[in-house]
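[SOLVED] Need 3D model of a two-part complex

Original post:
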Amino acid sequence: EDQVTQSPEALRLQEGESSSLNCSYTVSGLRGLFWYRQDPGKGPEFLFTLYSAGEEKEKERLKATLTKKESFLHITAPKPEDSATYLCAVQVQNDYKLSFGAGTTVTVRA
Amino acid sequence: DTEVTQTPKHLVMGMTNKKSLKCEQHMGHRAMYWYKQKAKKPPELMFVYSYEKLSINESVPSRFSPECPNSSLLNLHLHALQPEDSALYLCASSQESSGSYEQYFGPGTRLTVT
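Solution:
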């Protein structure tokens, strides 16, 4: 069975304090790993897709990386507006289903 | 434009009511999804439509009935719901072509069953 584990569950940062979120996964035949950001009461917002080990994607203060067993989401010099829950999801070949991790809730204090 | 729209934003219904949730996308995506999300939990897949045909039903109770009238629209018909069905209902779509499998989510409908 596909498993996706995110850590930590919660992360409290001071503004400007860089950190990383982890997503470890166990799947057979990975098609893609996806990162989403979700604000309270809203739908998840797509951030990145990673397809193969060694791949990296960047967007503003966020950078996502992928290995064969895990993915990291690095937040560089975060701002309060980066506060959200970050969800990791994996999809296997020939399947529509996303298997989500439980998420990491990030709070950035000014 | 990567927008998925959902109506209504909020819905309160009694256990004997019949209501419908609506979702629309104009990105030319060929797959559309319904998810259910409870507080502090990740989204759970309910249904998948691919090329307007039901592809996946994740053992969802029959009081939830999906419908895909055309390639841009997705409905979720609700009947005789239970209080435990109260949740955020999310619609999503994806292109499903080589190199483009990410799902784009709508803002959701907050459903309360009384």
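Edit: Chain A is about 0% helix and 60% strand.
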